[in-house]
Amino acid sequence: MARGFVEITNSGLTEIADYLDKLADDYNEVLYQSVEAMQDVVVDRIKANWVAMVGGDAGGFVYNSIGKSTIYSREKEFSIAGTMGVYKLDTISASFGKTDKDFNAAQIAYWVEYGTSRLKSGARKPRKGEISDEDLISVAAKPFISNAYNTTINEQNDAFSIKFNELMDRVK
């Protein structure tokens, strides 16, 4: 059996209490920034997938609408809520000369992610009733967003850990 020597030095409860006070003051911000680091991994992969899987342009309308949103939970003290994906952003739409009549980036991304179909005639599909496959043009799904999330789980966890440890090391 291997043995090791452990030495414990008690420097007093006041130092521990001071550290815990600092930790409590900074903990929410540490979590917030760590979650953002996770999200950055996914956003970067979504952008890469948009170009590689879909054939979109880097710097194009949908590409520039890819982002994240992070907020503190209103219900739970140490919870952070965040989303990543393609957003309908008015500033991006305006910079590309889009109006409310044009499809927004989120709609386009949804159709690419899940696929879509339309009538060959160009007419609107009726809300009720069945349409034969011969009358439809179907576009296959290219799940570039879900792929980005699912294939980067380890990188997300690593990014969280690295950022969390980096920020916790500053709390001394």
Low-confidence residue ranges = none
Summing up helix and strand content along with how strands pair, one would put the structural category as alpha+beta
| Main sheet strand line-up | 1-2
Q: For the report, how would you describe the main beta sheet?
A: 2 strands, antiparallel
Question: Which shape, going by the Cα principal axes?
Answer: elongated
Strand content: 5-15%
Helix content: 40-55%
Instruction: Give the helix tally.
Output: 6
Q: How many strand units?
A: 4
Written as H for each helix and E for each strand, in order along the chain, the element string is HHEEHHEEHH
Give the mean pLDDT.
84
Q: What is the CA-based Rg, rounded?
A: 24 Å
Instruction: Calculate the terminal CA-CA distance, rounded to whole Å.
Output: 36 Å
